[in-house]
Structures are given as structure tokens and as C-alpha cells.
Amino acid sequence: MSESITTASSELRADLALVAELIPRGSRVLDLGCGRASLLRHLIDEKGCTGTGVDGDPERLVTAIARGVPTIQLDLDSELGEFSDDSYDVVVLSRTLQAIRRPANVLAEMGRIGTRCIVSMPNFGFWRNRVSVLFGRMPVSRQLPYTWHDSPNLRYTTLKDLEDFFAAAGYTVERRIGVTDAGVPLPRGEVATNLRAGAAVYLLRRDRRRR
């Protein structure tokens, strides 16, 4: 894995470029909540990966299929049992965990399906969000761009709470990349990530003995 994380691909959202850097060349990738499959298209073209995208939105799936990416429509909360154990090298869940109803179940299924998991999430503990709440307003930012009444997000978390959640689910954090609100990676080893990061990308490994 490259120690130097960049956002070289102009075609990818900044956090997806970071996710792409974490995925080894030639991997079998399952992208949950794939949207229009920008990540998988990039991985297929640039890193020789194979994979499948999963999304629940028919319009986004039509775009993904038009890009030549294998995609299927499934409910992430209830239908991941369609995938066999260890059928992928990497399972990706980007900016989606906060929008599903059964996050613990989805996280468990990811660890069953893949050897490694990558999860990215916006950080409610980002300092600008804290200031907004202090002044009586729900945060709106680049990483949390919705107002309270039109947000697809069902839950919000700080990075500290998210990491406790990973640990309780039997995951070890192999890499954490904090991202500023502008999409710039924070230095590795940054001690104030929970305060400075608008979002974070996690590379996770699950203890299979807990399955």
C-alpha cells in the first residue's frame, strides 16, 4: 500500500480518491452504496480491479450500468446475505453508513463478505459543527451539506464514537485518514483529527474469530 496518499484523480470526489489509494491493484471490490459507480469505474480502468456496485436508487444504477460497471439493486439493510463469505477482497461503504437503518448489521455483513473493509463518514465533531450547535443551529457544511429537514442522514456521529462502534463490532482500524472540510487529507498521526476533520476514511480489518 502506498504511504503517500494523494487526490490525483480529478474524476473522483476527494474522499473517493483516498479510498481508491487504499485498494490494492487487481482486487475484487464490492462497493455498497456505489451511486453512479465513479469509484469502481476508476478502479477497473486504473488499477485492474474487478467488482460489483450495489445501490438502491434505480436512476443512479442506470448511470452506473451505462458506464459498463456491473451493478445490482439491493437493500443494504436486509439483502447483503446474497453475497457469499469471503467473496471479495475489499468491501467499500462510502458516505453511506449514516444513511442506513441497521448499521451494525451492515458492518457485520461487510466483514463476512470481504477480507478488508473501507468506511468513510462525515464527522459531526468537526469544530465548525460544534460552533454551529453552540449557537443553536444544526451544522451545514461541505461534508454535511443538507439542512435538517431534507437530509438523507438518519444519524450523526463523531469520529471517537465511530471508532468505539468499530471496536465493538470486532474491527481493528488499520488506517485512518482525516479529511478537512475542503477535502484535503490531514497529516498522518494528527492528534486532533476528531476536531479538525470534516470527515474520515477508515481501512478496517475484522477479527474473524468473532463471526
TrEMBL record:
Gene3D superfamilies the UniProt entry points to: Vaccinia Virus protein VP39 (3.40.50.150)
Note the Pfam families from the entry: MetW
What name appears for this protein in its UniProt entry?
Methionine biosynthesis protein MetW
- The record lists the organism as Propioniferax innocua
Classification lineage: Bacteria, Bacillati, Actinomycetota, Actinomycetes, Propionibacteriales
